[in-house]
Write a structure and sequence with these properties.
305 residues; alpha/beta; Arc Repressor Mutant, subunit A; D-Maltodextrin-Binding Protein, domain 2; 3 domains; five-stranded mixed β-sheet; 21% strand; elongated; transcription regulation; YidZ_PBP2; DNA-binding transcription factor activity; WH_DNA-bd_sf; LysR_subst-bd
Amino acid sequence: MHNQIDLNLLHIFEAVMMELNVSRAAERLNMTQPAVSHALRRLRRITNDELFLKVPSGVSPTPKALELWGPIREGLVHIRLALSPPSFEPFSSMQTFTLAMADYSVALFLPKLLPILAHSAPNINIRIVPNTNINAAKLLEQSEIDLAMGRFYRSTVRLRVQEIIGDRYICIMRKDHPLAHKRLTLKQYIKADHLLVTLTGEATGLVDKQLREMDLSRRIALTVNQFTLVPELIAGSDLISAIPLRMVERNPFRTDLHITELPLKIAPAFLQMMWHERSQVDPAHEWLRSQLFEIVQDLPTVTIP
């Protein structure tokens, strides 16, 4: 096999693996689609495998393609670094980064990121688009975003995921709520009317999964798709809500709320950063990821008063 292959074929294989679409791979390579298809036919003969199967969105890699992807990717990375070491100068860069974030991530990171940009990278632009956690992988695959922040339960071999910060869920209610200022029992909790933050639109969350395992359920009276709305809505209603503690810490309605522990164990709300393999060694992308990670290290620990 190695006597019949050349770097151009590996380069084309890489582009198709990254785009999972022959037309987009051709655009990425500045080639015609027939030329890319011809190269794939050569690779199929060499590997004795189909490598890519047609699907509605483009192509899907076979197990053999996935097996080859790791060593081919790493080899091309080393070759490129040896021939043309990349460089990036933040202060003079005029790059635009598009990030998929929910309001929780925006509230945590942007107040810290903007001063960094103003001082170290004044001409870099940031674009924020909505993140529902289920749309991020598709946006990354199609090169529509550079990075996503959220909680990602499904990814692919082409996507890198890194946990960057953990938060814990607490229960909030208005200060004069009948359940306030005393230990909240599980029985009281499930009988209350609940507000759920759901980025996907589904009226179910981590709490409901835990309750189902206990053969219990609760009434979700209201769902919203923004964390920042929750404290104000809770402060003016009889609803209660389980949300990450950091979301309440600096909210202007914080003083109108009673905060207490949940009467059941819920897994921490780990925030993850996800990006495409194509950006792994890109110096500009590495710089942005490092800035976001440093912001996390400086965030104070929060506790229930």
